[in-house]
Amino acid sequence: MAAEKATYSHGHHASVVKHHAKRTVENSAAFLLPHIKKNSRILDIGSGPGSITIGFARLAPEGHVTGGDIVPEVLKEAEVLAKEQNIRNISFQQIDANALPFEDASFDITFCHQVLQHVGDPVGVLKEMRRVTKPGGLVAAREADYRAFVWYPEPKELDRWGEVYQGIGKANGAEPNAGRYLRKWAAEAGFTPSAVTFTWAPWNFQHEEAKQWGITWADRVRYSSFATSAKKHGMAGDADLESMAKAWLEWSEDPQAFIVVPNGEIVCEV
């Protein structure tokens, strides 16, 4: 298969990686908890800073968990975190999800979180995930749906942020509303309807979590690949981006602020 051509819209600015490091099995992969055994062999694609990957390793102490990401710098952070927590049944390596460097039927569970929305060929990636999963094993994915976000308060600058995010995702060759397409993509990857379980689960950020979301997105709008891509594709200039950043900061200070991030989830039997 061809190498990844889509551009990762978020990039790996410190504000992005810090936010991703707050993800855990419990808040981002709870739908997989009933399926993980003590001796499971698990592949976590797009493992980023490794927080979910390490959670899997704790749940499978007699198995092994492999975390893979396309960016070597973030893998180094994950390795440091695993070492600090004395997690030994884990390894990290650089991968391209379009051509996984593993033999057929290598894993009991192959998982990705917020990855398919950033790739150019999500069906091809699901096919690769299926290839490296053992017969009787599981392919699982969890993806947000940006067009279905709900937030309050609703300043016009945040509506503008949503429009720009959608435009960036599409211009970068990906699908920012991946959550709603998971069943369709699974079918196109060769899974029968009876083999696929689809669920819908939101993140519901309020209070301190909402505040941190707003602060993080203010930084990302100013400094991450979001800003670079917005300007590259002519979707927003510096003044527009600054107005979005200020709106996120003001939003974060409102005690009534909340944001709901819907996530589609699939578990597919191989």
UniProtKB/TrEMBL annotation:
Record-annotated Methyltransferase domain positions: 36-148
MF GO annotations: methyltransferase activity
SUPFAM superfamilies: S-adenosyl-L-methionine-dependent methyltransferases
Source organism (scientific name): Dothistroma septosporum (strain NZE10 / CBS 128990)
Superkingdom to which the source organism belongs: Eukaryota
Protein name as annotated: Methyltransferase domain-containing protein
